[in-house]
Write a structure and sequence with these properties.
Layout lengths: L6 E4 L5 E5 L2 H22 L8 H10 L4
Length: about 70
Amino acid sequence: MTAIPRKYITDARNQKQAVIVDIETFNRMESIIEDHGLGKLMEEVEDDEGLSVHEAKKHYKSLKKD
């Protein structure tokens, strides 16, 4: 595992309060978390029965449009 370069924000007593990571690292972390979540969701619905094209179109049309 690669070390994550980070900086800390501390309070007056030198207690760590927050972490700063560069935007590239943040974007990579966010992508990893999203991919993990998507993978878990895909596992959860793996055994679900799919919709036919007709059923999918009907469901799509029923969704609330904003």
